[in-house]
Structure formats: C-alpha cells, structure tokens
Amino acid sequence: MTVRVASYNTRDFLDDRRAAARVVRALAPDVLLLQEAPRRFWPGPLVRSFARETGLRWPGGHRGSGGTTVMLSDRLTLVDCRHHGLPVPLGQRTRGYAVLRAQLPEGPLLTAVSVHLGLFEGQRLRHTHQILRDLPREGPLVLAGDLNEGPGGPSWQTIARVLDVLSVEEPTYPSWAPVEMLDVVWGRGLRRVDGTPPPLDRGGRDVRRASDHLPVWADVDLLAP
C-alpha cells in the first residue's frame, strides 16, 4: 500500500488559510504533519475547520505542543495521538511535537511524528535527542517538520543517523523565493515511491499566499520485512 505523507508549516494561519487548505487538498495526503497550527485563544475550532476544508480528520488536543499536530485521511484508522511540549526559557515561542499512530489497511501500525525545532542550535539539538528517545524502536515510522536548520546542521545530522530522508531534497523557505531547505520528511521501514506527483504548482499563487514555508511530501511503501 502506498501512503502519501505531507508536512506543512502554516504560520498560525496568519496568511491565507483558504489558500493553505487548497494547497493541502492538492497534495491529498493520507497523513498531514502540521507545524504552527494556531495555538492561542481557543484555537481548536480554527484547526477543526481547517481539517474539514482539507477533507482530513483531526484527533484534537494539540494545546501545549508548540503548534504541532497531525491529521489523517479516511484511508487510515486512528489508534491514538499524543501531543508533547518541550522545555524552553520563559518568553520564547513554545516548542513541541505530536505523535500519531494509525493502522494501515494492509500492514502494521504506522507512527507519524510532527516536529518544529527552535531558532537556537543548542536547543534544537537537545530537543532532537528528547524526541528521538520517545520514538518506538521498531515498526514503520515517519518524522517530518520544520527543523529550522539545513542538512549541515547538528540536529539534521543526528536524525540522519537513524532515519532516511524521504522527501525531495530542495529549498522550502521562503515560499516565494526558496533558498533554504528547512522542511523535510524522514522515515524508517519505508521506501519512497516516485509516482505521479500531486497537482501542486510550487511557484503558484496559493503556495505563496498560504504560508512562508513550502509543504513537503513523500509517497511511501512499506519495506519488505
């Protein structure tokens, strides 16, 4: 079974939320890993409405996770979803990660993790180690998000020692003239399938208006045991 995994930093829906929803619908993911989902002033209705607009299901309960959360399509069966905060000094933007487990129609459980690392290298590395310690040791897994650093950074290299890059390696920030590769889909126990790409124009109006980040995605199959 091929599953499409996508990751998107939506900048708290401060740009054009409807454009962001159209971007996600064009991607048509089975698993959507979000960063900077709204997190203040009763954000639940906004996120729930976004899920409806994209045709996805949202487990809810993302308060305290620094704006990370996960949505899924009807092709997958939700098992559970956890949202976690990460320690940051008072006054800094909250950070966290979300972990969803879903049953594939033909196969084992898939673990999907959304992460959004911070602006400071040392903090990113500490948070990376904390997140990796919390991951299951076995089974297919995807981890995706906005790392706030590129392939040469220590957090990136730490993840690369245990997971493989599954998304296309190209710049994702800023969306209107991308020069930095900050967003990525990683995986374990999965292989990328180079099939028909989604009908999404990376340089199109919706992508530029929806967020300051480009989405990333990967079509993946389970590796043979």
Explain what this protein looks like in three dimensions.
By secondary structure, the protein is an alpha+beta fold. It is globular. Strand 6 (109-116), helix 3 (121-133) and strand 7 (141-146) form a beta-alpha-beta unit. 21% of the residues lie in helices and 30% in strands. The mean pLDDT is 93. It has helices at 17-27, 44-54, 121-133, 154-160, 205-210, and strands spanning 2-9, 31-35, 69-72, 77-86, 95-103, 109-116, 141-146, 164-165, 183-188, 190-192, 216-222. The protein starts with a strand and ends with a strand. It has one domain: Deoxyribonuclease I, Chain A (4-Layer Sandwich). Strands 4-5-6-7-9-8 form a 6-stranded mixed sheet, with helices on one face. The protein has a 5-stranded mixed sheet with strand order 3-2-1-11-10, with no helix packed on it.
